[in-house]
Design a protein that fits this description.
This protein is of the alpha/beta class. It is about 25% helix and about 25% strand. The protein has 10 helices and 23 strands. The strands form 5 sheets. Strands 8-7-9-10-6-11-12-13-14 form a 9-stranded mixed beta sheet. The radius of gyration is 26 Å and the shape is globular. The structure holds thymidine-5'-diphosphate and magnesium ion (MG). Magnesium ion binds next to α2.
Length: about 450
């Protein structure tokens, strides 16, 4: 038997090479080339235009109306989408297995099915499994058309016949196109299926939501090309052990990025959390050492998050440094700054830090809160009541400003905080009523202001 012809496809950029190489010649990524069968395909099939226009037009002659949006009936989901699903847009939603992707979209479609024509395509679960889940969600009576199918061509036909307004594909990795020989889930198949569905969505004006799996490295399985093709990329965050789920927008052609939706997983599906700040503050009856409240900013929303630190005498020569929800490398840097510029040494101490509620904080404006929590634990002195901070700490011991300072101050006031330590550059001209704003320039000033 003749050997099937194969080539190598890069899982990062989708580029191809004839033989295996360690490095992709197209995007220079290492170890990303995987063997795939050479696809033969009818000419002219691939390069169809996305939109019905064919002539060159002048920009000012193009009718530019605001895209129509449909609310999903779930406020937090609308928030990450930038106000709702846009007609003819393609949304890719990724996350770890079991985090609630299918649940969220089933709930969304159940809501939408009351007023719109929708279609739920399930390739992962059987129709009866979906029905069982819908019943558990209290959406069992919804008039929700289900299609248990994994062949792309049949799905496209169903969409063309039914003309729904919103389609959910659960998940893109289970689909395959009969025109290609490679297995479902392979780079070529995922890319082809996503491209075909995107084209269909633009042609018919259907809002398409694709569910995608995330690999161990934390990226969407399949080629990166998928992220470029779609209009919006959303990721689920938060660990499956806690009941809170965060959905973050990474790319959005119709709204702001880094927008965060907060949900709680209940026995009846995902519920939006309207006041998430309360969620990331632990309820201490009394002031405790090692705890500092941070005013952070996630997209357009300020959030209050409690940062906890535990500093304890180390009994091994190299003390442990552990951070949960905060950047590990920044912790080492902050400890060095603390030693050099405030004379507080932790070289013989284990240091553990944690952001309460499972939220992941990447912004440097968390530095000051981490520092104060560490010092508070080390000295066993709690911070004052109603006290919150934000600000980045530089290597020279200076406190650098954070973006959107005013909004952070407003959120702190709203949640009943009375004293806020902030970088001098963020100081407002006129402080709000009832809020004691303390601007600081260097970390020794910050320590003095925290424990006068
Ligand atoms: P699911 O939506 O199937 O995850 P994904 O599609 O991202 O893989 O979520 C399944 C998890 O959610 C499972 O661990 C059970 C939990 N769950 C609830 O706690 N309550 C519910 O009402 C539902 C439907 C699921
Ligand atoms: Mg699922």
């Amino acid at each position: 038997m003749a050997k099937a012809k194969t080539h190598h496809v890069c899982s990062e950029c989708g580029g191809t090479t004839a033989r295996w190489q360690g490095q992709c010649p197209h995007c220079s990524a290492w170890n990303t080339l995987v063997e795939a069968p050479l696809e033969s395909r009818a000419e002219g099939h691939r390069y169809q235009s996305l939109a019905p226009t064919h002539e060159v037009v002048m920009l000012d002659a193009v009718p530019a109306q605001e895209a129509e949006r449909v609310g999903t009936g779930i406020d937090e989901f609308d928030r990450v989408l930038g106000g709702g699903l846009v007609e003819g847009s393609v949304v890719l939603i990724g996350g770890d297995p079991g985090i609630g992707k299918s649940t969220l979209l089933l709930q969304t479609l159940a809501n939408l099915s009351a007023t719109l024509e929708v279609l739920y395509v399930t390739g992962e679960e059987s129709a009866s499994q979906v029905a069982l889940r819908a019943r558990r969600l209290g959406a069992g009576s919804a008039r929700l058309p289900l299609l248990a199918e994994i062949e792309l061509e049949r799905i496209c036909t169903a969409v063309q016949q039914r003309r729904p307004s919103v389609v959910v594909i659960d998940s893109i990795q289970t689909l395959y196109s009969a025109q290609m020989q490679s297995a479902p889930g392979s780079v070529a198949q995922v890319r082809e299926c996503a491209a075909q569905l995107t084209r269909l969505s633009k042609q018919l004006g259907v809002a398409m939501v694709m569910i995608g799996h995330v690999t161990k490295e934390g990226t969407l399985a399949g080629p990166r090309v998928l992220e470029h093709m779609v209009d919006t990329v959303l990721y689920f965050e938060g660990d499956t052990h806690s009941s809170y789920r965060l959905v973050r927008a990474f790319k959005n052609r119709f709204g702001a990025v880094n927008e965060l939706g907060v949900f709680a997983m209940t026995d009846r599906g995902l519920r939006g959390v309207a006041n998430p700040s309360a969620l990331f503050l632990s309820q201490h009856a009394d002031r405790v050492p090692g705890s500092c409240v941070l005013v952070t900013q996630e997209g357009s929303r300020p959030l209050l998050v409690e940062i906890q630190a535990l500093v304890d005498t180390a009994h091994v020569p190299n003390p442990r440094r552990l951070s949960v929800g905060l950047e590990h490398n920044r912790l080492a840097m902050l400890l060095a700054v603390l030693h050099r510029h405030a004379g507080i040494a932790c070289y013989d101490q284990d240091v553990f830090i944690n952001a309460v509620g499972g939220v992941r904080i990447g912004e440097p404006a968390a530095d000051l809160a981490v520092l104060l929590a560490i010092v508070s634990s080390l000295k066993n002195r709690p911070l004052p009541r109603g006290f919150a901070v934000f600000g980045e700490v530089g290597l020279a011991g200076e406190i650098r400003p954070a973006p959107r300072g005013q909004e952070r101050l407003r959120e702190a006031l709203k949640l009943g905080f009375s004293r806020v330590l902030i970088p001098t550059a963020n100081a407002p001209k006129r402080a709000a009523e009832g809020l004691d704003v303390v601007p600081v320039q260097r970390i020794d000033q910050a320590l003095d202001a925290a424990w006068p």
